[in-house]
């Protein structure tokens, strides 16, 4: 039997396309912006490490494989998968020396991208599998063409392309079985849908009756099953998840505390402050000021 034809691996990383964009502050307030984009074929020794970089890198693996470091954990990225790297935290990505990857990549920033990153739990689960690779490839290449052509309405068109990509990632994460993320408790199948919805959208006003209905269970049965699976009641688990999101927002933004409370699902700042202190031991204002002193 003949050996299969192997991909030709370059000895030096080839940057097939590399584009830059410098959007204005007004554009940054209005849109998702793309500040860099490119297409590369990596050599076996390709590796990038950074402590901090404004923006978020989305790496679409066309072939080969590689790795990303996120939240001090290593994740493998296979062909037809996408990795999301938040530049606001120490991070790294590198090729698999035995099978170096070919990437389309974009660096995005601007309106609400940090919030999208948080909702999708990117720091814990940076790799998106079973994605619509053809549709994503089309949007990535559309972004490259726009940045090369630079039409007058460039930033508005880039915003539309990024929005399409984010929509696909949100749809993918909503449909992806929660246990495939890794690092989370194994959730019984009969309460998994409720758990997934709360994990992805903790800011929504979930009620036990609604969650039980998703799972096709009575409220008492759902309550017991959820507590067996997580060790917590549904509402207590939801409050903890909201406070975890609030902690990130307090450290990553200058938003007023009342606004942070609303972003994570609290309509009343008093109840938000009460729950925040209950789960962290300090009030939201003190939590933020302590961090600022450490910085």
Structure description:
The chain folds into 2 domains: 163 residues, Jelly Rolls (Sandwich); 103 residues, Orthogonal Bundle (Arc Repressor Mutant, subunit A), CATH 1.10.10. The longest helix is centred in the middle third of the chain and has 22 residues. The termini are far apart. It contains 11 helices and 10 strands. The N terminus is likely disordered. Helix content is 44%, strand content 20%. By secondary structure, it is of the alpha+beta class. It has a 6-stranded antiparallel sheet. A 4-stranded antiparallel sheet has the order 3-8-5-6, with no helix packed on it.
Task: Give short descriptive properties of this protein.
295 residues; alpha+beta; Jelly Rolls; Arc Repressor Mutant, subunit A; 2 domains; six-stranded antiparallel β-sheet; four-stranded antiparallel β-sheet; 11 helices; globular; disordered N terminus
